[in-house]
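It would be a great kindness if you could assist me with a short task in structural biology. A protein sequence and the structure tokens that stand for its backbone fold form the material at issue. I should value your view on which stretches of the chain appear to form regular backbone elements. The record follows directly beneath this note.
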Amino acid sequence: MKPPPRLLIVDDEEGIRISLRGILEDEGYQVFDAESAEVGLAFLETDSVDLLFLDIWLPEMDGLSMLEKVRSLYPSLPVLMISGHGTIETAVNAIKKGAHDFIEKPLSLEKVIIAVERALEFQALKRENTGLREQLEERDAVGPMGTSTLMLTLREQINRVAPLDTWVLITGENGTGKELVARAVHNASRRSGKPLVALNCAAIPKN
């Protein structure tokens, strides 16, 4: 069974921390809290969380300063800023510094739950997108997969022709991996740092 998402609340008002913790724990989240930016950063050094609630107005180090440190140290951690003295300028500044969203006090139960769900969903999509991109890059770098004699021969041909400054024609039936071979040739060539444009000529009208 997958463990519940871990959330950290950083707010100097004990009442807000208790209230927010109650809301989130009722929704099944595992919740931790800290009364200052310094305590919050110390917690993040030893424990990982999936989302951070961060008050803007904090003693000593304020929330925006902590946000900058979090973005630098934990760039993938989504941050929801909260404030009882919020202005449009403050909200825009927080978003520009990397906050995922901005919630005004008094905290609305519905807004808090929706904001958390959206932030976690967005983060999950980012992780999935990154994983797929890494798989594609790995696939493109390796080229056609397989250990059969035919595939080994194909890899040898790719490695032989890729360094050359010459035209290459790749033929084959639909779905046999022509573009995959083309990308493998490109990645092994001296032009690998330049873009490779895939063009579906069959989709271009004759006129």
User: Anything to note?
Assistant: The chain has two domains: 6-134, 143-203.
